[in-house]
Amino acid sequence: MKNKQQTEKRFVSLGTKFILLVVIILLSTMGVAAYVNVNLQKSSIIEQLKAKGQTMGSFISLISTDAILGYDFILLDRYMEEISHQPDVVYGAIFSPKNTNLSSYLNKQHPYIAPALVDNTPTILNVIEQVNTHEDILPMEFAIQNGDETIGILHIGLSTKKASELSKRVFKEQLAEIVVIILFLSLCIYYVFRTNVLRPVRNLITSSERLAIGDIDHKASIISNDELGTLARSFNQMTDSLNNSHIEKDNVVGQLLNANKKLETATKAKSAFMANMSHEIRTPLTAIIGFGEHLQSPDIPMSDRGKAIDSIVQNGAHLQQIINDILDLSKVEAEKLEVERIEVSLFELIKHIETLVSIQTQERGLTYTIDYDFPLPEKIITDPLRYKQILINICNNAIKFTEKGGIHINIALQQNRKLRVDIKDSGIGLEADQIDRIFEAFTQADSSTSRKYGGTGLGLPLSRKLAEMLGGNITVTSTPGLGSCFSIVTDPGYIDTAKLIDKVPSNVHTTSKTESDTAPVQLSGTILLAEDTIDNQRLISMYIHKVGAHIDIANNGQEAVDAALSKEYDLILMDMQMPIMDGMQAVKILRERSYSKPIAALTANAMKKDMEYCINAGCDDFLAKPIDRKNLLRF
Amino acid sequence: MQHRVVYQRFFALILVCSELLFCRLAFSAEDPLVMGIFPRRNAATTITLFKPMAAYLSKQLGREVTLVTARNFASFWKGIVDKKYDIAHYNQYHYIKSHDEFGYEVILKNEEFGESLIASALVVRNDSGINTLQDLKGKKILFGGGPKAMQSYIITTLMLRRAGLMKGDYQELFAKNPPNACIGVYHQHADAAGAGNLVVNFPAVKNKINVDEISFLELSKKMEQLPWAVKGNMDPALKIKIQSVLSTLTSSEEGRSVLKQAKLTNLLKVEDAQYNTHREIIKELEAYP
């Protein structure tokens, strides 16, 4: 209720309040000043009156001495008559020391005298005493001396009424002057206030009202260089901020809409991907499981058994590739993937790709050519694993989407010192809109592509990310039906122009199987395998036994600790995730108990972070699952 | 012969003109006549009252007349002693003394309120309970003027003596003048006042007090009013001229105005013998211890 009353208060403008305040202050100040001045004037007039009475009384009392001594009442009366001519004198009287009246003058026109004379036989003294009761009567007494003897007393009564009336008149005049002055000053002050305060404030009010109705482009005029000017500037800054906020909001909304659109697209893509992945994973799994079940039959001819085993190995490898791609992409997106920078031979690296690509093109009846735009650096600084991964991905795609014709690779050093590899095919090509989407994860040109050609749609996004990490990019030019050209540009590191070459070096060779890869490995000693999975126990035991070493099995970390501390082993293969006690804790216990033999971690968590955890826990090396036989035997 | 007559007539004309011129120069060389007025009233009032008379006389005589007065009787008397005044107006006592000692001759007397004679009176308040002169024994008597005042003091004192009241039987007080003595009695500053009987007619008294509340306890017989005298050695023609001018004031408007201004109704010719009564009174009073 109170709030309602407050809100319903009548609007009183700032100008009205200010002018009222000014008027009140001026009126009170000048009123007080006028009052004080008038009182001072009144006091001054009364003092003058007193002085006048004093002079008059002193003089008459002086000259009355002889008259009294000579019983010259007529002369005394003349003195009183003289007094009567003086303004403001209400009465004058001379008394003997025994209060016998010698002479007197009473102004019978004075309003105080007439009532005092109403009494039948008033004495002059009674009249005087009665008149003296009035506040505006100034009574004065003067002794009339004859030497030291007082021979009479002169009484004079002066009226201060005229002084009061004069003061009132002066006060009224001053009040009138004050009103005029206040009016003038108020108008002047109001003018200044209106110019310097009200106008900027009203301007701000107008601006805020326009802002309130949505006119955020409106600017407040900066009229004065003061607080209000600052306020106007702040207001404009606020509107700017608001404007920017609106723009940002619109941008954000736009971005959100785009993101939402992308999210929807991504969701669709991910759904499609999941379906595709399901297909891609199930397909090799079908082959692996199917051929595996098929091998369980004892009556399978040896020729079919060999093919079945090949299919299982190939599909297993394909499945591993799929999983590796997914892991790599997730690492890239999480910015966890790191690339190394080492010096490698460009030509050896290309030769390796050429070896892989030429085999596949031959299998598909496609041509394969390669051109070098010399001069080219013999050595580049890059991550050879990731660089090859990019090139193989692009080449595999080119081969996959090319039915006839061939693949052509061109290698050149751009003017900006970036290395460029163009992989051109004569495949199905891409529409312009498809080009924009093929580098998005889980996206292929269209869903029919995955159905027809297979693939996860992870290769190109991963390749572009890797190219970016290697200081470059991948761009595409394509003509639907005629083929595509993927250009992989990377930073080859510092290039010494003096070391640029104009032909393929003669000593280039592909990475061939080393002797150690092909020669049968023979090991000795005893290895402790801590692994809770029976199949892995069997598989690794089989690998170890096959190379001649002895192996003991521990089913969890606790057994591994007990075994290692009770028997001497040349190597411990420690699975990280096991029941009862995991491998990490077991390693820690062993290292705490000064176990100094090598321990290699086995884990399906193949991230670098996982490897660091293992190393930090005390492991000497790291082996990712699935176990690669060659890597295992490397130990 | 004819030439001789012509020369005689010419010289006669020259002589006449010379005499006229000489006379004129002689007149112009005369000292101003000094008119001394005794301070019956205060000096300023006296000058105001008699200034027109002096001017009128001067005009009529063709001779400057200087009006003088004195602050008090003593000062005025000194002017008499010094023979300073050619014309003197004073009371009867002063005249008798100036006549006897310095030869002043009375020429005129006052007529006031139509009365050229004046009586002396002892005035009391009606409510005073004083009915006879003997009742004044031990009382305060306020005499107008001073011991030289003929009407107010000398005659009234003689009246008291004759009534058996000697000096010391009453307290003598002296007012500035007779009106004040009456006013003083009225206001009970004294029990009785000594004054001329005409004083109650004076506006200065009538306008100040209620004269009905006072009365004459005793009146003397009427005697000559205040005199105007001239120096005894004054040219008789001038004396006559002055007497003539002043005694005929009522015959002209200007003269009446002069009289009115001086608060007189007339000035009458008088002779020294008319003041013998006063001489006798003075003589009788001086005989009392």
Distinctive features:
heterodimer, A: 635 residues, alpha/beta, Beta-Lactamase, Helix Hairpins, Heat Shock Protein 90, five-stranded mixed sheet, 19 helices, rod-shaped, B: 289 residues, D-Maltodextrin-Binding Protein, domain 2, 2 domains, six-stranded mixed sheet, 10 helices
Map the helices and strands.
The complex is a heterodimer of chains A (635) and B (289).
Chain A: H1 2-7, H2 14-69, H3 73-85, E1 89-95, E2 101-106, H4 113-116, H5 124-132, E3 137-146, E4 149-159, H6 161-212, H7 227-295, H8 302-333, E5 342-345, H9 346-364, E6 367-373, E7 376-377, E8 379-382, H10 384-400, E9 406-413, E10 419-425, H11 432-437, H12 447-453, H13 459-469, E11 473-479, E12 483-490, E13 500-501, H14 515-518, E14 526-530, H15 534-546, E15 550-554, H16 557-566, E16 571-575, H17 583-592, E17 599-603, H18 608-617, E18 621-624, H19 629-634
Chain B: H1 2-28, E1 33-37, H2 43-61, E2 65-69, H3 73-81, E3 87-89, H4 92-102, E4 105-111, E5 117-118, E6 120-125, E7 140-144, H5 150-162, E8 171-175, H6 178-186, E9 192-196, H7 203-206, E10 214-219, E11 223-224, E12 227-230, H8 236-247, H9 253-261, E13 266-269, H10 276-287
Parallel strand pairs in B: 1-2, 1-3, 7-8, 7-9
Antiparallel strand pairs in B: 3-12, 4-12, 4-13, 5-11, 6-9, 6-10
